[in-house]
Amino acid sequence: MTRIALTALMSHWVRNWLQLAMLLAGLALATALWSGVQALNSEARSAYATAESLLAEGTAERLDHPSGQIAQDRYITLRRAGWQVSPVVEGRHTLGSARVTLVGIEPLTAPQGAGPALAAQDLNAFFAGRAFAHPQTITESGAHDLDLHPSDAVPVGTVLLDIGRAQEMLDTEALSYLHLLQTQPAGMRPLDTLAPDLRRVPAGEGAELGGLTDSFHLNLTAFGLLAFAVGLFIVHSSVGLAFEQRRAMFRTLRALGLPLRTLTACLAAEMLVFALIAGVVGLVLGHLLASFLMPDVALTLRGLYGAPVPGVLQFNPIWAASGLAMTLGGAALAGAQALWRLWHLPILAPAQPRAWARASARGMRLQGGVALALAVLAIALTLGGDGLLTGFGLLAAALLAAALAVPLVLAALLRLAQRGARGPVAEWFWADSRQNMPRLSLALMALMLALAANIGVGTMVASFRATFIDWLDLRLAAELNVMPASAQEAAALHPYLSDRADAVLPMMRVDATLKGQPGQIYAMKDHASFRDNWPLIDPVPDAWDRLAAGEGVLVNEQLYRRAGLQSGADTLDLPGVGALPVLGAYADYGNPLAQAVLTLPQFQAAYPDAPVRQFAIRTSDAAGLTASLQEEFGLSSAQITDQAHARDLSMSIFERTFVITRALNVLTLSVAALALFAALVTLAGMRLAQLAPLWALGLTARRLAGLELARALVLGALTMVLALPVGLMLAQVLLSVINVQAFGWRLPLQVFPADWARLALWAMLAVLAAASLPALQLARQGPADLLRVFSRDR
Amino acid sequence: MTALILDTITKSFPSAEGPVRVLDGLSLQIAPGSAHALTGDSGSGKSTLLHIAAGLEPAQSGRVLVAGTDLTAQDDAGRAALRRGSLGLIFQQFNLIPSLSVAANLAFQARLAGRHDAAFTDHLADRLGLADLRARYPEQLSGGQQQRVAIGRCLAARPALVLADEPTGNLDEGTGDTVLDLMLELTAEAGAALLLVTHSPRLAARCDHRHHLRAGRLEGGA
Description:
The complex is a heterodimer.
Chain A: H1 2-15, H2 17-54, E1 61-64, H3 72-80, E2 85-95, E3 98-105, H4 114-120, H5 123-127, E4 130-133, H6 135-141, E5 147-150, E6 158-162, H7 163-170, E7 177-180, H8 191-194, E8 199-201, H9 209-245, H10 247-255, H11 260-305, H12 317-343, H13 353-384, H14 388-419, H15 424-435, H16 437-475, E9 480-482, H17 487-500, E10 503-514, E11 517-524, H18 528-533, E12 536-537, H19 543-548, E13 553-556, H20 557-562, E14 571-574, E15 578-586, E16 594-599, H21 600-606, E17 612-618, H22 622-633, E18 640-642, H23 643-657, H24 659-696, H25 701-742, H26 753-779, H27 783-791
Chain B: E1 4-13, E2 20-30, E3 35-40, H1 46-53, E4 61-66, E5 69-70, H2 76-86, E6 87-90, H3 102-112, H4 118-127, H5 143-156, E7 161-165, H6 173-190, E8 193-197, H7 201-204, E9 209-214, E10 217-220
């Protein structure tokens, strides 16, 4: 009996294979977009774990110095005093054709970790110069004289080697920091008397990559979830329409004696099979998508956070299993309504279109109620919520409320249009559009969501871009930037540059924890370059003068907002300096770390060992000065960057950051177009019975096809109009809530009508493409097909 | 002017055993105001004949003239215009427009043809007993009421020729008789010709002329 019932149910899909293809495509695409994003996240997180496990960052404490350097004799002193410490040297170095981070360790004293384990494989070879790197780093670095061995345990862009060799290559005798082993002998002199200037950093605090990149991954996850939801709209729409088409079959099967429980189980089994098939296809597509996007994501994470993420994706079975579970869950969600309706379907239910429309009207009222409740929740979250998750909760509630309201608003607009219609065809056009609204509503909701996401994210990116360019132009006021290779070179360069440039602004910094956040303290020389080009947020009166007088600090916007600081009212505690009043904040886009700025003399007094990392040079002859620096000091072109180069570099990082956002945007819109196509194709089969009488009454098939096309365009255009305010709301929330929570900066909302016009054009083309096939089929419908409607009379 | 002329119409359908000729040189003339019944066995070609007369389906040969216009010489748009302007179609399954109210359905074809006369439509609605149902939608009506709306929709456009395909086939005998009475009465009142396809000799007997379709040709014509 079950087999026969299944055969009957499946016969529908055999006859409606395109509808089946749409259902499977919807589920597969939803899975692909979700699992693709998850694959990217999982790969990045696994890379962070690799980075942290290289030197057992999660388990060993560190000792470091605010200057970032520890003299080697300090290490010897501590060892002699009995402290179990192990030295580490880290630094950037050009290896062949790649910039890499050299990590030098002393394997005999190092705490457990993947790095020391690699070295221990052959200690003699390690001491003799063997180094380890990720295979991708070996490929990227090309030709060089280092004895590099491949290992997946080393993060991308890092080279692990003996500490002596690392010091030699980095041209330094200092250490970067010391690892403090967990087990220490008893009775030693305390560290705070032995080395009072060294800072003890708890295990795991130095490795904040996971924390820093959380917001990036949360953004990706949110987009993946949105795409998944849009994909589920297709599935829900296809399943719902198939239910309507098979309503008579269900009644017949029930009337013939098939128990309701068996019929429901058959329908659930059918959904399960579809979900499994689509899930597997979706996983394959998701893996391909993630592989395609991985290089850009890796570049973004490296550019934004310095996170060592490989550009190549590995297959992860846990990812595949969770992706498939998501598909099954999504399919269950999308099919639940159909199963519920089947369970409550009376055997003798009438199968009239208006009856369905009326039943849908009841559903619409319920939908309106849910939309209203969600809107109230969104308002409540706006007024009372805080935190990134609350921000995403607000976005989800507002978007869902808007999506649920779409069919109601469209139905109201169509009713208005019907009232104003002149002529029978126009009247029928609007009335018929309204009647078919329940069948199209899911696809239109998906389209609205995709368009709103496009407008919202597009506006956010464009606003950010415009603000970023203005900010960059001010920030990059210096014509040249010179990076000395060592403290000696810096000492030699300073007087030379002072004699030849209009102004020399040394850049010095130390690492520090600011208000509990990882951060840096910078030195700033009092100069018009800063006063004129750094617009301050909430400054106290005469902020620059007070900074120059050493009466306070400036902080970056990230620290200002995250720590909830108030200029003039709050102070900031700086190690080695003490508490200083906050004088104002400055924009600092793209930097994940907290930052504070002190005036140069105050900084040098507090951190005398901090090296000059860079000189910003104001000069009217950048080319001449570059040439003389190269000639006199033999500086490489990598050590001198001009303004244009720095600007290009910043812009390229910015553009790369949003590559994945744009890609997901386009994909989401494509999925929505597919949802509309699926709905229209399915509807086309059901529409014939509604259109044939009009043809018989004297409207040509071509005109009817034109009207069908016009209907899709009108609905698409109205949806676009509705998506505009929703998209702007989304942009506003992204700019003023999500960005502030995730990155720490707030940006002004700017509107870009030309972008909307372009999107509207694309949306209309997508709608046109989706509606063309069904319309073309109708236009080409021969009399035989249309007559079949009347033949069914007998 | 003759309402309908069918002149040596032939029509075949392909089948596994080769083409089956359902209409074999059939000819028929219907004068204005006259009511003709067409009977025949299932599959004899009654509906095909009606569809050809309505321009819904082409004949393989022969000519069809509706109110003096050669339907066979028209393109799709021409045939559609003729259906709008000169023909009224009534189907067994009513084929009302479900998204429109009874009032909008009644006026629909007349408005399509550009001949809407609100007073006449109201008069028809009264005669058909639909005056109180005008605000309702088709699915809120009984089968008999729906077919009365279909008749009203057809006659409100003042067609020269009404083509009715088993108009009472979906109704019980009592309701069917009432509907047929109204249809015959109102068609005659409007001066329209009627071609009624039915397999009921009892209903056919109520028309002025009766034809029986057998082997692709008409018998009778009394």
